[in-house]
Amino acid sequence: MIEERETVETAHEADTVPHELTEAQLEALLFVAERPLTRREIAMVAGVDRATVDARLGDLEVALADRGVRLVLSGDRVELVTAPDAGALIARYVGADAVRLSPASLETLAIVAYRQPVTKSAVERIRGVDSDYTIRTLLHRRLVVELGRADAPGRPFLYGTDFEFLERFGLTSLDELPPLEVEIAARLIEDDEIADRDAALGPPVDIEIEKVD
């Protein structure tokens, strides 16, 4: 009985001992993962702390900088993707053409990328035209995703970008987006001011005026 208890305690101690996470192990884990993994998930699987995960991710990102696969970080999630310069070759292999976007789709996608999280009405205010079809097209191509709902009347959807967007445009994070032109940045700032003003005023109130004879 004493031996059995000692065995259980020894096994428990072995489980609590911090494990090692090498760069090669991390690369293999991300390679077999069928979806992006969070840093917390990696830490739990490897039995290491978050600091170790962050350190190995940094090492792996540098090691893969000139390779055929890249490490993409989006918030707390990470994933391995193919390098942008290999896109044409991979497209020929899988028999798929590169995604071609219309000017309207590119404009809408740019607004979402820089302004996210953003509602459809905000996109339409900036563009000045109806954007329902364009947003649905971008959703279908997974270049835009639903991030939740806004805390506003009607609870409209909030849109943003995800890994598909980063991979398509050869980015490893949103921090690599090029700076906006002054005129475009001014339009986004103006929309922010309009949104803040509308939120402060609240929804419009209908007032009935009684006609006096």
Task: Write structural notes for this entry.
There is one protein chain. The protein has 213 residues and is mainly alpha-helical. Helices cover 52% and strands 11% of the residues. It has helices spanning 2-16, 23-32, 39-46, 50-63, 87-94, 103-115, 120-127, 132-140, 163-168, 182-201; strands spanning 37-38, 69-74, 77-82, 145-149, 157-160. Strands 1-3-2 form a 3-stranded antiparallel sheet. It has a two-stranded antiparallel ribbon with strand order 4-5. Helix 3 (39-46) packs across helix 4 (50-63) and helix 6 packs across helix 8 (132-140). The chain is globular and about 55 Å long. The N and C termini lie far apart (100 Å). Residues 1-17 and 199-209 have low confidence and may be disordered.
